[in-house]
Amino acid sequence: xxxxxxxxxxxxxxxxxxxxxxxxxxxxxxxxxxxxxxxxxxxxxxxxxxxxxxxxxxxxxxxxxxxxxxxxxxxxxxxxxxxxxxxxxxxxxxxxxxxxxxxxxxxxxxxxxxxxxxxxxxxxxxxxxxxxxxxxxxxxxxxxxxxxxxx
Length: 151
Prior knowledge:
- The protein is mainly α.
- Helices cover about 40% and strands about 10% of the residues.
- A two-stranded antiparallel ribbon has the order 1-2. A two-stranded antiparallel sheet has the order 3-4.
- The chain has a domain at about 1-65.
- It is extended and about 75 Å long.
- The chain has helices spanning about 30-45, 45-65, 65-75, 75-95, and strands at about 5, 10-15, 115-120, 135-140.
- The chain has four helices and four strands, in the order ββααααββ.
């Protein structure tokens, strides 16, 4: 019988004669790899599958409204770890310089803004997690003169 090389572990195996396109051996780890790769490909290339997955997850959440409340009640160590991580994220956020507060006074003080791709995200005091991040392209068309400070 002919043998094939497993796409996951690289070991030789005898494929099932009824599955001529078999690429993975029967090892449970290799089967998990096969399923994970299939799922990843499906999510990337099948919008109907993605939509169905989202609807199924929403349906599960609506049927199991108290799941996370119960989980946190039954796993106090998880709750404490999560609180500690959140404190750490909050402390990091407070220490970050978000924007330069000095406005340019003249054309010479203007920062050298270059055309290119930039990341923009909304800044809110109460925002803990990044909820929106946009990649934008900025093109500098001209350098307009600065208005007089008294205007």
